[in-house]
Amino acid sequence: MKAFTILIAKMCGMLLGRIGRGSVLPGEIAIKINKNILSYFKLPKITVFVTGTTGKTSISGILTNMYTQNGYKVANNMKGSNLEWGIITCLIMNSNLKGQIKSDVLVLEVDERYVKKVIRDVKPNYFIINNLSRDQLARNGHFDIVWNDINNQITDDIHLVLNSDDPLVTKFGINHNGKKTYYGLSKTKYSKKTVDINNLDVMYCPKCNRHLTFDYFHYGNLGNYRCEHCDFKRPNPDFEAKLINNFSFKVDGQIINMNNPALYNVYNLLASYATAIITGIHKLDAVSALNNLSLKIKRVDKFMVDNKECTILLSKNETPISYNQSLDYISKQERDKTVIIGFNNVSGRYDLKDLSWLWDINFELLKSDSVKKVICVGNFSYDIATRLKYADIDEKKIIIYEDSSELLEAIKKHGNKFVYCIFYFDMEKVFKRLLKEA
Hints:
Elements: H1 2-17, H2 25-33, E1 46-51, H3 56-69, E2 74-76, H4 84-93, E3 105-109, H5 115-118, E4 126-129, H6 137-140, H7 143-151, E5 159-163, H8 167-170, E6 180-185, E7 212-219, E8 222-227, E9 239-245, E10 248-251, E11 254-257, H9 263-278, H10 283-290, E12 300-305, E13 308-314, H11 320-331, E14 337-342, E15 371-377, H12 381-390, E16 398-401, H13 407-414, E17 418-423, H14 425-437
Parallel strand pairs: 1-3, 1-4, 2-3, 4-5, 5-6, 6-9, 13-17, 14-15, 14-17, 15-16
Antiparallel strand pairs: 7-8, 9-10, 10-11, 12-13
Helix pairs in contact: 1-2, 2-4, 3-9, 9-10
């Protein structure tokens, strides 16, 4: 029965692959034939899970690239199919009929809400948890629910790779008796003594419930923290990055270059570096792989519109940390620019109108003199504009386009030479369709 299920799903995957599809459906078919299919696979000695609110796809892609450059055969759900069906599809397409994974390394990006569904049968040797924050309220509820769902599945034979700068992530290590490796970023010139918006996810010590003290913040909840009433504090990272400039940092005595200046990129590369080292890659080989990445940044893209350079930054709605990282990226571009913000739907899953998450976004970063115009586009353009006015953005700079089909016209008419677009996935589709039609 096991071999038959895998065979049928493989055939389905190969047929769909010819038309550029098949990242999910083979797994859906397999689990309908046999609901226990996940328990049948034999995993390689290096099996890595990657989860977190942001950075999952980037870290799994970087790791896959690093292992491949160092001669390992790697299986990875690179298409971002990180839910149960997508993971089953990845396992099926990379195994023989006996369920043996035919690779040296298995790297799986796992959605934080689906860890509990997958890890029962597919247990990693190494588990990277990059960050946890409020995200998609209708789906996730409170972030403590997500934390508990993950923590309840972690056993002491799993080597945890944790972001030491996130107190909610280091909380996983408190009662873990297995191996732990921490990575983090030291204080930078961008670090702040206080938060820009009073919206911290974790304000209280997870051990004694007293108020946490932060010496500085990088962004969101990430920084250097301690409890003055017990021994909970930011763990000393085994791998600590020191920022050299906007495009490079030093770790382990080695310099690693970055293709964009956003601080989240440091964490993605650092998590990948730490995991590569503890799984047997020599540090010089790891650095060489990172400095020769040919990886495309999934959520950053560039297009030319009427001789204007448009940079698209895809940001998930209902996920303030994602939006704030995009705004942080834009704020570091000192040249004159136009910023476009737009979405037609709050959620890709549910019919939602809740916009409370907009008030957890640091739109105040757009008050810079280098931001000449802010264009609000789509069904919620007036809501976005209202939030911008409360952020003290000059009302003369705010332009509204309710109809997203006028997006290119807005760029041509109001855009500077450099245009930065913060889009939800639905607006990206509109933009690319309009470009193709043009």
